[in-house]
UniProtKB/TrEMBL annotation:
UniProt keyword terms in alphabetical order: Signal
Protein name: ComE operon protein 1
Coiled coil feature spans: none
Origin superkingdom: Bacteria
GO molecular function terms attached to this record: electron transfer activity; heme binding
Amino acid sequence: MAVRWLMTGALVALWMASAAMTSAQQAPAPVMLTPSGEGLPDGPGKDVTVRSCGTCHEARRAASARLTRAGWAAVIDSMIGRGARIADGDVPVVLEYLSTHFLGEAAQPLNINTAPQIDIEAAVGLLRREAAAVVRYRERNGRFKTIDDLKKVPGIDFSKVERRRAFIVTL
Ligand code: HEC
């Protein structure tokens, strides 16, 4: 009997280990892009921002949302948490650049490619079935490259997305 329990325990441990491995494999691979300032407005701090924000994803796509200053500060913090290496002295420069050129009213961005259905529903103001359609479309067709790609999702009222365009990102 005891042996049986031990074996069950071992199997559960194995299953847990393989589940952990699978989710580790699904984490976004660290791609190193060549930072480019294409499409970003000129101004003080642009170079530092492009260097700081353009290695893991395109800087232009990251800086497509319009957020409050506090919102941008939180994004920068969260990117440092995800491994962005930004010198202490550069943080205020990046914050200044982003909150000068990309200032808005939203406290945080919504990444339409990773947000759970419930967040899409609440933040974009979609019906439950519309948010479900967005997730289904994303699962079948891969990531949305632009916000306009959401027009292809069957059964959603795109004008609702249009109204929230300012804080939706497609990373
Ligand atoms: C070390 C890599 C790295 C760097 C450098 C980086 N980011 Fe990110 N960023 C990520 C990852 C990973 C995600 C999540 C993408 C995903 O879920 O597929 C992300 C997502 C985002 C999002 C979407 C919201 C979210 O939290 O998913 C924004 C906005 C963003 N980054 C802005 C920035 C800005 C601004 C900078 C520069 C200050 C920056 N990033 C630098 C890795 C990085």
